[in-house]
Amino acid sequence: ASTAATSVSISGDISSQLHGGYCHPLARSWQAERQLTKSMLIYPLFISDQADEETLIPSLPNQHRRGLNKISAHLEPLVRKGLRSVILFGVPIAPNVKNALGTAADDPSGPVIKTIRLIRARFPSLFIVADVCLCEYTSHGHCGILRDDGSLNNQSSVDRISDVAIAYAEAGAHCVAPSDMNDGRIRAIKLKLIEAGIAHKTVLMSYSAKFSGCLYGPFRDAAGSCPSFGDRKCYQLPPGGRGLARRAISRDIQEGADIIMVKPASSYLDIISDAKDIGRDMPVAAYQVSGEFAMIHAGAKAGVFDLKTMAFESTEGILRAGATIVVSYFTPNFLDWLSS
Ligand code: PBG
Ligand code: ZN
């Protein structure tokens, strides 16, 4: 006797059957447009002017402020595990080094320029990004030069910040990344790079959509860059300002940015998506900032979630929104996690 083939009846359309597409770990990974890879990650380093310093930053879990003499030993195992890029932040600790003009920012014997030279010599495969700002170096802690009334003098700030950018690029930084948010600094930096004959070998990454908020606290502890009065709300963007962010991104692309950045990341995924849309022809970076990193650590410590799972989930969300580069304090962890 022959048995008739079993016929299955499906309620609804056949396209309702999705489980098959993600039933296996590999098939699940294929569902993402972009996989997290080591080469997407940029690791922030805080470089102290005290050559032998190595201090844990309490509000930024597992992160240190390090002097020049501690950099190589720190980077060596990370480079071995596949670290491709770092972003440098200078931290002047010595007394009386800060002033109204942020003179120490481009001091050739200062920590950033010395570290650029050291890394170029010791780790030639590392891509060096130099954050460009004055807030770590000004006596008042603001991201530029101030008028008597305490507001930013945009023109003198741009003149000064573009000089600092050129100094970092000439010292050997592969990329300069102005985080100050003064108007017109991308154009000024690009013009000076051209004038200096190094525009063809320097990437200009703009912190285009950098929002003002409460997520930079641990960074300011680490870098000692908290403003001594007022806040940054008249130059960093207001959290609700999506249209303003779109205009800032378009403006910076027009002015010659090679990469645009959105910061912070997880509360601004719509802005990352806008950046990818407006800047569809260029790489888009997102900075998962100190407060986001500390929050994930605090959540994990409180038993809300597993640290590694949340680090991946938050970063995959940032990639899904449109980022192709992620500045992350989790980079050392990812170098381990992506190897196993
Ligand atoms: C300096 C700068 C800041 C960050 C990057 N560059 C601090 C600020 O604007 O106050 C924040 C990074 C972080 O919180 O991890 N302009
Ligand atoms: Zn600043």
Note down, in words, how this protein is organized:
The protein is α/β, with parallel strands linked by helices. Helix content is 36%, strand content 16%. The chain has eleven helices and ten strands. Strands 1-4-5-6-7-8-9-10 form an eight-stranded parallel barrel, surrounded by seven helices. α8 links the parallel β8 (259-263) and β9. The chain is globular, with a radius of gyration of 22 Å. It starts with 24 loop residues before the first helix and ends with a helix. The mean pLDDT is 96. Zinc ion is lined by residues 133, 135, 143, 179-180. Ligand PBG is lined by residues 131, 133, 135, 143, 179-180, 216, 219-220, 225, 289-290.
Question: Which oligomeric form is depicted?
Answer: single chain
Mean pLDDT: 96
Bound ions, cofactors and other small molecules, one mention each: ligand PBG, zinc ion
> What can be said about the biggest beta sheet?
8 strands, parallel, barrel
Order of helices and strands: HEEEHEHEHEHEHHEHEHHEH
DSSP helix fraction? 25-40%
Sheet with most strands: strand arrangement: 1-4-5-6-7-8-9-10
Strand-pairing-aware structural class: alpha/beta
Beta-strand residue percentage: 15-25%
Terminal CA distance reads 54 Å
Characterize the overall form. globular
Provide a count of the helices. Answer: 11
What is the gyration radius calculated from CA atoms?
22 Å
List how many beta strands DSSP finds: 10
Uncertain residue segments? none
